[in-house]
Amino acid sequence: MGDNQNLLAEQRRALILDEVRRRGGVRVNELTRKLNVSDMTVRRDLDALAHQGVVEKVHGGAVPVAEASTHEPGFEAKSGLEQGAKEAIARTAAAMVAPGSAIALSGGTTTYALAHHLLDVPDLTVVTNSVRVADVFHSGQRRAGASAQSTGRPGAATVVLTGGVRTPSDSLVGPVADRAIRSLHFDLLFLGVHGMSVEAGLSTPNLAEAETNRQFVRSARRVVVIADHTKWGTVGLSSFASLEEVSTWVTDSGIPQGLRAEIAEHLTDLVVADDPRSASRA
Fold this sequence. Notes:
By secondary structure, this protein is α/β, with parallel strands linked by helices. It is built from twelve helices and 15 strands. The protein has a seven-stranded parallel β-sheet, with helices on both faces. Strands 1-3-2 form a three-stranded antiparallel β-sheet. A three-stranded antiparallel β-sheet has the order 10-11-13, covered by helices on one side. It starts with 8 loop residues before the first helix and ends with a helix.
């Protein structure tokens, strides 16, 4: 990991988490040496990671939390995590959307954040399987006034909500959703994910959601994954796309520099939302 004395806390903790997951555990004295920081700093970082529920502290170090590959947190549980990162990712992703585009937004808390930034982009056609995302656009148009409800606000998005069975994350999945998505074509797909890795690609703990996401990917000209750094290295029960099928991954600066080159080998474009040098490519 080299000399990381000047890393931000979030970047340092991401490095530690990657080391824990890759090796199955780390010791404090090893981390102080590799990161070139104090014992107290490492222990604070491990406390923070343990508070997030991603590592378990043990005597002298930490081990990864063994989360079942079928565990699917609810929307509310996920919405409180990495809020700053999700907001930065959403702002950067919104700049990729041209007026008049046909776009798709999958379910998830990051796509929910993105939806708020798309309210002022005119003449969009938005297809989503997220009840929460659809509500963002509906509420935005309702706030525009009574006249917007009767005649349609000029430039307001046309929103298509697929049918389907509701998941814990408030996404609609299953055969009804799959058939609807299969018949459509999108300029851009913004995809939230449960987990990403080189070996498993994009994955989710929900089998039905995996198939719905697979249909989204097949129907899109360009696939943009919007996911914070904590999703890297997480593997759900079912894979639905390889990294090579992703055009762009918009993430945050918590992704360690050492991992970026490896990830970039499998993606057309890696955009780090709060890194001006990277975000300028969006």
